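Exercise 7. Given the encoded structure of a 444-residue chain, write a plausible sequence.
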């Protein structure tokens, strides 16, 4: 059943977003003639992507083409609508968003997140940067059909739309999903409007997605694809064929660039729900650390039936936000090693609580040797019974003694392996868990 509709201004964009949706588990196809969609196609696909070939035409014609496509796609069964926009903001962005918004009887907000972190497109302070260069200084400014003359996202959109345009900056995104949800509720969906978000990393996209869903407002998305994929990843209806209940818990304390790449790969290729522990809170007073641990566990527990993997990490996918332990230790008058231990103990404490609250978790992946030690200490384990090498310098085994005796665990060094290292380790755990469950059912 089609639950997600993408309208793109060209075929390349339609396919690009479709591929991203496929990576998060949706059966997706690109359709050239939405008016000819069949009952078989409606039942077979989760998402359809339609190109309107409207980037270089007059804005009125672009509006007409998007409106016509939307007329064939709007349905009570669809839960996610996307107006795919160019990653360098070329084309009739405002008028095409207007056309999609006008296709609904009730008002909606267009949530615009015009970034593609992996392609070097980020939004900071309302400006779009491409590989660190202002948009107006890139080839987009010299496009023969639709040159882009400014790097200010709001100016581009506001010039083309009939509806109010608002912006939400990184300070709100960094404050978390609750802050994003509250900011959107303040805008409300009683009238049609557009809201533009700053974002730098994939983690920012996930925060905005969580906040948008939490807000409960009627929305459409507008982005080059990654944000819509992040939203789809979080919508439970797209997980209907998966076994409910998380199977593996990821505990990641490493703050290296290699770990960032490994987390991003896992988030894209596994069904993961994650929350980030703020290191600056964990190194504070015990009450401060307790509040942070409770916040993360409460949020992650609510997601435990939506994904097969849960992740707790102090690595927020943005190394510029990494706590400087040396400076923080000097400020507090303690040793940097003590602060590092506080962070590790915080992650381990959060892991213990998740293991207590989510009965379906049968394996743990630990990235960083110190994290493994902290996990063993928190559960009073006496050691790890080793079973096999998953990848070089990453071993799988089970805990010996303590509260979690027999719990499967894979321990990997923070800089060990390529970008797919964490994904391979977690898949190894999932396969082992599935084999045991299958054997158990067969033996009954």
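Solution.
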């Amino acid at each position: 059943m089609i639950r997600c509709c993408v309208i793109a201004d060209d075929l390349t964009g339609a396919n690009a977003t479709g591929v991203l949706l496929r990576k998060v588990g949706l059966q997706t196809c690109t359709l050239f003639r939405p008016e000819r969609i069949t009952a078989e196609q409606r039942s077979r696909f989760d998402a359809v992507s339609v190109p309107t070939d409207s980037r270089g035409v007059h804005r009125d014609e672009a509006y007409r083409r998007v409106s016509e496509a939307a007329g064939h796609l709007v349905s009570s069964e669809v839960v996610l609508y996307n107006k795919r926009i160019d990653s360098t903001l070329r084309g009739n962005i405002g008028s095409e968003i207007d056309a999609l918004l006008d296709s609904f009887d009730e008002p909606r907000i267009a949530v615009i997140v015009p970034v593609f972190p992996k392609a070097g497109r980020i939004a900071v302070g309302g400006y779009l940067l491409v590989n660190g260069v202002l948009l107006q200084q890139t080839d987009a400014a010299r496009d023969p059909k639709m040159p882009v003359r400014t790097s200010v996202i709001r100016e581009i959109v506001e010039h083309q739309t009939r509806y109010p345009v608002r912006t939400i900056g990184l300070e709100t995104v960094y404050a978390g999903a609750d802050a994003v949800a509250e900011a959107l509720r303040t805008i409300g969906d009683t009238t049609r409007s557009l809201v533009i978000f700053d974002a730098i990393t994939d983690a920012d996209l996930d925060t905005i997605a969580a906040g948008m869903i939490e807000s409960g407002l009627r929305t459409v998305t507008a982005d080059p694809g990654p944000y819509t994929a992040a939203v789809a990843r979080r919508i439970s209806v797209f997980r209907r064929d998966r076994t409910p209940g998380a199977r593996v818990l990821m505990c990641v304390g490493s703050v290296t660039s290699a770990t960032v790449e490994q987390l991003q790969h896992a988030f894209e290729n596994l069904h993961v729900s994650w929350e980030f522990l703020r290191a600056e809170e964990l190194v504070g007073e015990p009450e401060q650390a307790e509040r942070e641990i409770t916040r993360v566990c409460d949020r992650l527990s609510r997601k435990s039936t939506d994904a097969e993997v849960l992740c707790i990490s102090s690595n927020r996918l943005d190394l510029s936000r990494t706590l400087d332990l040396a400076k923080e230790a000097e400020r507090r008058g303690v040793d940097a090693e003590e602060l590092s231990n506080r962070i590790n103990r915080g992650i381990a404490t959060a892991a213990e609580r998740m293991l207590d609250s989510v009965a379906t978790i049968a394996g743990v992946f630990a990235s960083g040797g110190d994290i493994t030690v902290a996990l063993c200490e928190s559960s009073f384990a006496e050691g790890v019974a080793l079973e096999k090498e998953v990848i070089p310098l990453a071993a799988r085994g089970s805990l010996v003694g303590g509260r979690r005796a027999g719990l499967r665990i894979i321990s990997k060094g923070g800089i060990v392996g390529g970008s797919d290292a964490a994904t391979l380790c977690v898949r190894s755990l999932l396969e082992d868990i599935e084999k045991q469950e299958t054997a158990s059912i067969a033996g009954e």
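Remark. The longest strand covers residues 383-391. Students should compare their own answers with the one above.
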